[in-house]
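We close this part of the discussion by returning to an individual protein. Part of our work consisted of pairing the sequence of a single chain with a tokenised description of its backbone. What the numbers capture is local backbone geometry rather than side-chain detail. The amino acid sequence and the backbone structure tokens for this protein are reproduced below.
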Amino acid sequence: MAGLSRTAREPAPAAPAATGAAAAARRVRPLRRLAAAVARRALMLVLLLALVFAAVELLPGDAASASSERGDSAADVEARRHLLGLDRPVWERFADWMTALPTGDLGTGARGQKVTDLLADPLPNTLLLGGTAFLLTVLASLALGCWAACRPGRLADRIVSHTATAAFAVPEFVVSVGLLLVLALWSGLLPAVTLTGPDGAPDSWTMLVMPVLALVIPQTGWNTRIVRGALADQARTPHVEAAHLDGLPARRIVLRHALPGAVPAIATGIATSTGMLLGGAVVVETLFNYPGIGSVLASAVSGRDTPLIAGVVACAGAAISLVLLAADLLRDGILGDHP
């Protein structure tokens, strides 16, 4: 019996090895999720760029005819078309452009300038505008959503909800026109257009105020609803209900108990608004004469300049993908293996 007992107990030392393997698997799992998220975002960006090449190809005319000078003959246009490589299949031009992309080469525009040189000044200005608007949107949305969540069902909650819906329903160009009328033309508090300094950036911070507000107001409305909805979902969870039963103050319940659980949903919602921010920036930059990629993109589309259009989309898409990737990592870090 003693011998049998020892034999029965012998497999027990294998438990630490199994525990170590499980721990190693848990350490590798986040890396796998990160790799999968990066691959998914990269694939989406490649598909978007392929769609850009195909869409420009379907437009009437091409870069050779759009950039031709008065008096150019058909032979001159055809020679320019050959010089730009437009006589090659679109898939071949896209493959060459994608091959050079990892090295930072965005190709050459229809006018013979490197796309990276054409974007060297406008892109940082757009990132400054979009980044500032994004930061203010996050802060305003969190503040308004949490403030309303501390007063559920009361007048303040309803006012925030209705105002946020109305703000999101107003397009950026309408907000821009309203800001121009009130802050520039009627009151003269801010300049109506953006003047640039020697470095190509806005000459004064005051010239950023109205473009930023034109982007922040609609997106704050959208994200405030997201924050409020996520906090409302958390208010029905057992630990938050227990905090209410314990008589804790509403502010503490929202900030200490509800908000941490709502972060994944809030982060995902705010990250998706990055694309809307950059898309709205194109319109806002045009209205305020802001020196960003909006004017570059407009001239590139009118000139059928495929490499320049693809370069703008690649830069904007990379910025959006990074924000979405950060939201994915934040959600996975908080939720772990739970759905």
